[in-house]
Design goal:
Chain lengths: 265, 265
DNA sequence: TTGCGTTGCGAACAATGTTCGCGCAGGGTG
DNA sequence: CACCCTGCGCGAACATTGTTCGCAACGCAA
């Protein structure tokens, strides 16, 4: 049983067969219902019996598709990473490589920077898209970046890390372009082996052979974006800072562009 | 009933009386047991019945001290903010103003910068202490900064915001000192009213009359610290970056000092 | 001592995740 | 075309959780 996972993770075999199609459809409906519930009550409030009710199904019936509540959550996490990655790629003008069962490419993002735009414009676009997705999907953001579900560690080959590698790859893309164009000012501190890590780290995100300093630079920029967004989405900025969150985010983003040497003061 | 809350939030009346002392003691034991459980199984895994078992109490008995599971969580959140603030203040050489029932000032932090140290040293110290506490208290970090508990909004006058204001105040202190010394380079973007917010925002953290740009600067620096720490603690950095987290954090911190004009390249 | 407020307990209720065994229908195989 | 059998869904059940209610015991003040 639970062939849905294999059909979802590795889409090697064609999902031919009438039965497999029905299974796939209800599996999608199940995830959609669960995602609706997460949107309403948050990741911690997701109840299997409630999504069963939405589907008009028995609670036990769900276990033909899911091995546990946490398993459903990890499936939603993987989908969430893919959704975020789709948005980031759209912001970069990429037509969302290899979208499988999720049908919708997303039109509206604050800034879209085509592939021939200058790198600073592209980095700005992907940063703003990161925030825009997070602010408009707070509960999914919590699902992806909030408390990890207790006792769970993502299997290194699981769909979760592959999906997360996609968002890392989208964030890295402008940096790689800048590095290729020689426009990236690399801080000597970041090239230090203790910072850059062993060669081969970041392999799932960065192509092999890239400058050792790009990895730390990516994580540094990502961490900055993420910090502002995380504090804002979880209500820590908004608490003492009602309306300036986006402006503050833009200011920090600009500062980061400057730190990377991509823009002159 | 539930006089413990009032006795805990406002310690106006002396807790005289033999009974009040016993009540206070079991209330502390209760919070300690709950905190132990949070440390072991995470905030989402905290079970009232389990802490009741630890205390050798009936589950119903807990409700003489707690109005709900979420109420207990908010009490732990407030305590967590205070604990973090204590660590930050210790790193700044302040003797942890007004510690009430929590008895322990904390000796070991990576860097302690006395009040007469240069501001950049002090800001470094508080930043490193922020990370050190978070990394050594991952589940409490998740409690404070992870998913907000569903449907809960901190009451504006509650103990939670007061405690959080303490950590904001500790982070702000070096910035205020730098501003007072005229050493803070203020980005004109950050003085813009749309970024700085209405006058009077950040009142619980910053003393009135401080430069309007200090608030955004604080949130900017805090967001940077927080982003790196959050990604690290929740396992997103560690996943593709085994050992360089502290070095990366230090690099970003140094970059931030530079952005603030507190250190020359 | 008497009385009252506080404290704790046992039982109970609703809701949750999860398992087990059964029926049943539909699809691939003879 | 007929058959079997695989997969799907269900009902019931069990353990565990948060929470409430009424009752018993106890400390403290009058």
């Amino acid at each position: 049983m639970l062939t849905a996972d294999t059909a979802d993770t590795a889409e090697t075999v064609a999902p031919t067969g009438r039965r497999a199609l029905a299974r796939e459809r209800t599996w999608r409906e199940l995830k959609a219902a669960a995602l609706d519930e997460v949107r309403e009550v948050g990741p911690a409030g997701l109840a299997l019996r409630s999504v069963a009710r939405r589907l008009g199904m028995s609670p036990a019936g769900l276990y033909r598709y899911v091995d546990s509540r946490d398993g459903l959550l990890t499936a939603l996490i993987a989908d969430g990473y893919h959704d975020l990655a789709d948005h980031l790629e759209v912001a970069l003008g990429i037509d969302t490589a290899a979208l499988g069962d999720r049908e919708r490419p997303e039109p509206q993002v604050p800034v879209v920077a085509a592939a021939d735009a200058p790198v600073e414009v592209r980095l700005r676009a992907v940063g703003l898209a990161y925030r825009a997705w997070s602010v408009t999907h707070p509960n999914e953001f919590g699902l992806l970046f909030g408390d990890p579900i207790p006792g769970y560690a993502a299997p290194a080959d699981g769909p979760t890390v592959e999906a997360m590698a996609r968002v890392g790859g989208a964030l890295a893309r402008p940096l790689l372009e800048a590095a290729a164009a020689g426009r990236l000012r690399v801080d000597p501190v970041l090239s230090d082996p203790t910072v850059a890590g062993p060669p081969g780290a970041m392999d799932p995100v960065l192509p092999p052979g890239t400058d050792r300093a790009v990895g730390p630079l990516l994580l540094l920029a990502w961490g900055r974006l993420h910090g502002q967004v995380s504090l804002e989405v979880f209500g820590h900025h908004h608490w003492l800072f009602p309306d300036g969150c986006e402006a503050l985010f833009r200011a920090d983003l600009e500062r980061t562009l400057h730190d990377l040497g991509l823009v002159t003061p």
